[in-house]
């Protein structure tokens, strides 16, 4: 066979076969796996870069927003929106409003606070504390009652929401009542029942610590 | 049209009766390397050396131009499957030429106007495939030639018969001469005459482009008197025409006579031709020019060898490649090795190209990784700067945003009662007084109140509303019609002052409807009717305005 084909041909074939084998081995044994690994690493780094940039952009945007919102946030904080609904403060504030508005009497009942879940508060690690307040007012003029509502809504710590109101004229302005008023005797002519919801944001940690004492945390 | 430089370059061994002619055929010229007589000492070594050194070991085409060539036309093969066809032809060839080991079969194509001299009507289309069988004996000359080829280690391009391989050259030459296009009808018969270097006259006759007959005879030397040469050649042509009549030749079919000769000899022959034909005479280089092939400078342009060799030597596909065990023994292994070498070269080339591509891709990827790592470091730095900025602000972003969002949401659900009460006061004026006023949160739609006392209505697809009920009592002394008018007027004023709310009289003064409860004292002692006239209006609207 070699005599017919020739040594030269056999040598050329052998060299070509060896070269092809070597090249394929280098290609498939080393370069392709390396390439796959490098491509995967490149993709991974690309993803990391994109994520990091997105995070930076988010922070940058938030920083801009926060700068604008910070003033309002501080105002809310000053207005007691993050208070833990201290009852002493509430009593003092109702007394102040009663004096300011001139209603004859304001009897109040602040019920036990309940913790309510809220998504906005949750994300910040806070919860919403809600306390129902019922106030019975006696006044000579219904305008005083509306003033009372105004000051409750605008000066009470946290957020106050009027749930219902019932105003009744208890007595007509007659000769007797006019005489009593003239004599300086407090004469109630109008009676009102008010129901408010008092809400503030408190940290979940604070709620957890206080749950054994003041707050009923079971409410959802 | 194939590009000339892509045509094969070969070593052509032309087997003549007296000697072997070794030609080197390139794309532009044909060179007679040497003539080696059969009786030469060291014949094989000489030819071997010529193939290797003078022809550069190119693939060898063995072209048989000996007298001893055998043909059998009109060999019909029974209709068999494609798989069995080769076997049947091989057996038929063996039967036809049992003593000649070098054989080949050429399928014959029949034109529409085919006529058979043996058919009574003159026209008969064969039913099965018909072949021209050809064979050559394994003469000493052929054996020596094959041994020389075997020893040269050059690959074998083929073993062919000169008249068969030149038949398409003859047809092409005739077409070019007559200016006809291929496939168009012209002279059916073409007779090509050319004297070879050894003095033999080779005649190739084609009918409808296919080999019909070939003759090799001895004539006067071309260097002799042109008139004598022309006379002898004319005599041979006439003999050939005579033979052709057996194959159905008639002058009416049209005949082209092409002669390779010197100018004067050609003219003499032209004068001598006495039958109806289109006569043409050229030297070999002139014929090559007409054919569009290059044969270069020839020692004697009157000889036709170079023309045949140039035509056959540059073919990519032969008309009738002859087959024999002796040839196969040399040809097959070399062909396999060549094919394997080609495949390996192709594989190595592919691998090399792919390797380069992969290397480039890897370098790009690594460059990209380095670049992306730098970008990542920058992004990390930017991120840390942003974090530091946020920390420096000293606020909890989520707390700030959550608190504001919650407060705004609560504010949207706050009942704006004070502006409504102010408008109610304006509407009442100085004359009318309320006995009671109540405000309650109601739900528009069927959603229940949520944790914020109805604030979830928005989320549930409903809106939170509140209702204000105004109660008043008219004294029994008034005319009920007056009371009704006052209430209606109050309703109208409220609607004007509170256009965005729905105002309605819930209970009219002295309402006669059965739904109304009525109390009072009737009788003289009671001083007339003592019933008072209560009335009630309602104002409804959304909590947020």
Summary of the model, kept short:
Chain A is an alpha+beta fold and 220 residues long.
Structure description:
The complex is a heterodimer of chains A (220) and B (545). Chain A is an alpha+beta fold and 220 residues long. Helices cover 57% and strands 22% of the residues of chain A. In chain A, strands 1, 2, 3, 4 and 5 form a five-stranded antiparallel beta sheet that branches. Chain A is rod-shaped. By secondary structure, chain B is an alpha+beta fold. Chain B contains twelve helices and 17 strands. Chain B has a five-stranded mixed beta sheet with strand order 3-2-1-4-8. A five-stranded mixed beta sheet of chain B has the order 11-10-9-12-13, sandwiched between helices. In chain B, strands 14-15-17-16 form a four-stranded antiparallel beta sheet, covered by helices on one side. The model of chain B is unreliable at 119-123 and 445-462 (pLDDT under 50). Chains A and B meet through helix 2, helix 4, strand 3, helix 5 and strand 4 of A and helix 9, helix 10, helix 11 and strand 14 of B. Strand 4 of chain A pairs antiparallel with strand 14 of chain B, so a sheet runs across the interface.
Structural class by secondary-structure content of chain B: alpha+beta
Largest sheet of chain B: 5 strands, mixed
**Helix fraction bin of chain A:** 55-70%
Beta-strand content estimate of chain B: 15-25%
What fraction of residues of chain A sit in β-strands? 15-25%
Shape of chain A: rod-shaped
């Amino acid at each position: 066979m070699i005599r017919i084909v020739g040594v030269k041909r056999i040598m050329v074939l052998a060299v070509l076969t060896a070269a092809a084998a070597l090249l394929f081995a280098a290609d498939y044994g080393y370069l392709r796996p390396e390439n796959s690994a490098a491509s995967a690493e490149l993709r991974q780094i690309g993803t990391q870069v994109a994520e990091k940039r997105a995070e930076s952009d988010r922070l940058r945007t938030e920083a801009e927003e926060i700068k604008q919102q910070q003033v309002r946030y501080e105002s809310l904080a000053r207005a007691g929106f993050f208070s833990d609904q201290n009852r002493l403060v509430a009593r003092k504030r109702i007394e102040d409003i009663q004096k300011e508005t001139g209603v004859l009497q304001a009897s109040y009942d602040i019920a036990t606070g309940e913790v309510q879940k809220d998504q906005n508060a949750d994300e910040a690690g806070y919860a919403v504390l809600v306390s129902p307040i019922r106030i019975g007012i006696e006044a000579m003029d219904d305008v005083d009652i509306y003033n009372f509502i105004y000051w409750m809504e605008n000066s009470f710590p946290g957020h106050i929401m009027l749930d219902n109101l019932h105003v009744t004229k208890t007595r007509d302005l007659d000769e007797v009542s006019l005489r009593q008023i003239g004599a300086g005797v407090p004469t109630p002519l109008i009676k009102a029942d008010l129901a408010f919801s008092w809400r503030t944001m408190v940290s979940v940690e604070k709620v957890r610590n206080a749950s054994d004492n003041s707050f009923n945390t079971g409410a959802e | 049209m194939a590009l000339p430089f892509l045509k094969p370059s070969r070593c052509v061994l032309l087997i003549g009766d007296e000697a072997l002619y070794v030609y080197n055929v390139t794309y532009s010229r044909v060179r007679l390397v040497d003539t080696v007589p059969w009786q030469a000492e060291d014949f094989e070594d000489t030819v071997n050396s010529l193939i290797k050194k003078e022809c550069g070991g190119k693939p060898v085409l063995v072209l048989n131009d000996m007298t001893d060539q055998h043909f059998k036309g009109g060999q019909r093969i029974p209709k068999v499957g494609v798989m069995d066809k080769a076997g049947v032809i091989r057996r038929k060839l063996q039967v036809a030429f049992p003593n000649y080991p070098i054989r080949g079969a050429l399928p014959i194509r029949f034109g529409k106007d085919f006529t058979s001299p043996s058919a009574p009507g003159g026209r008969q289309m064969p039913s099965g495939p018909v072949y021209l069988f050809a064979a050559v004996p394994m003469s000493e000359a052929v054996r020596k030639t094959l041994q020389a080829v075997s020893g040269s280690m050059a690959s074998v391009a083929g073993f062919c018969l000169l008249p068969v391989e030149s038949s398409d050259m003859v047809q092409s030459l005739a077409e070019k001469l007559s200016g006809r296009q291929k496939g168009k009808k012209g002279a059916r018969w073409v007779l090509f005459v050319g004297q070879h270097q050894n003095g033999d006259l080779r005649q190739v006759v084609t009918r409808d482009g296919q080999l019909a007959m070939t003759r090799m005879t001895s004539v006067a030397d071309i260097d002799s008197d042109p008139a004598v040469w022309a006379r002898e050649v004319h005599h041979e042509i006439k003999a050939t025409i005579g033979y052709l009549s057996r194959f159905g030749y008639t002058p009416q079919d049209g005949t082209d006579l092409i002669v390779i000769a010197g100018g004067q000899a050609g003219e003499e022959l032209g004068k001598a031709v006495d039958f109806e034909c289109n006569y043409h005479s050229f030297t070999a280089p002139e014929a090559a020019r007409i054919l569009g092939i290059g044969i270069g400078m020839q020692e004697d342009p009157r000889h036709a060898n170079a023309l045949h060799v140039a035509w056959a030597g540059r073919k990519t596909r032969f008309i009738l490649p002859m087959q024999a065990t002796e040839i196969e023994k040399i040809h097959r292994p070399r062909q396999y090795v060549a094919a394997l070498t080609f495949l390996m070269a192709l594989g190595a080339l592919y691998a090399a190209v792919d390797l380069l591509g992969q290397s480039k891709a890897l370098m790009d990827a690594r460059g990209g990784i380095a670049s992306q790592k730098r970008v990542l470091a920058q992004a990390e730095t930017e991120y840390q700067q942003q974090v530091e900025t946020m920390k420096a602000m000293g606020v909890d972003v989520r707390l700030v945003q959550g608190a504001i969002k919650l407060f705004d949401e609560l504010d949207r659900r706050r009942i704006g009662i004070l502006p409504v009460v102010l408008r109610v006061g304006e509407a009442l004026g100085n004359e009318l007084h309320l006995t009671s006023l109540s405000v309650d949160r109601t739900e528009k739609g069927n959603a229940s109140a949520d944790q914020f006392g109805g604030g979830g209505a928005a989320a549930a697809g409903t809106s939170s509303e509140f209702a204000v009920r105004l109660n008043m009592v008219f004294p029994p002394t008034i005319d009920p019609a007056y009371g009704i008018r006052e209430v209606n007027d109050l309703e109208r004023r409220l609607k004007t002052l509170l256009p965005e709310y729905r105002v309605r009289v819930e209970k009219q003064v002295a309402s006669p409807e059965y739904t109304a409860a009525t109390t009072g004292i009737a009788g003289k002692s009671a001083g007339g009717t003592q019933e008072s006239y209560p009335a009630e209006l309602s104002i409804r609207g959304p909590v947020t305005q």
